[in-house]
Write a structure and sequence with these properties.
Layout lengths: L5 H16 L2 E3 H8 L3 H10 L6 E3 L2 E5 H10 L9 H4 L1
Antiparallel strand pairs: 1-3, 2-3
Length: about 90
């Protein structure tokens, strides 16, 4: 259940629209995309293992190109080798 008030919803929508004009995801949207908790995303930033980000005031923005580059870096290629060849 959403606990934000209507004015908070409007404010976050406005910030989201501005981020989209800058070709960025909000931290909350990146968390949703990654199915990650806020703590996990924070840990990725601290370890330098997630996508590049921008800190603007107390908000984190994730440039879409950086997220795309990160996704490419963690993409696993399927192997066409049969099970018998692995043994």
């Amino acid at each position: 259940m959403d606990t934000m008030q209507p004015t908070e919803n409007r404010a976050i929508d406005h910030v989201r629209q501005m981020a989209e004009r800058l070709d960025c995801f909000l931290e909350e949207d990146f968390q949703t995309l990654a199915a990650a908790t806020p703590g996990t995303v924070e840990a990725w930033r601290k370890r330098g293992t997630g996508p590049a980000y921008i800190r603007l005031g107390n908000r984190y923005l994730y440039p879409r190109k950086a997220v795309s580059k990160y996704l490419e870096s963690i993409t696993k290629e399927r192997s066409n080798v049969g099970k018998a060849a692995l043994l």
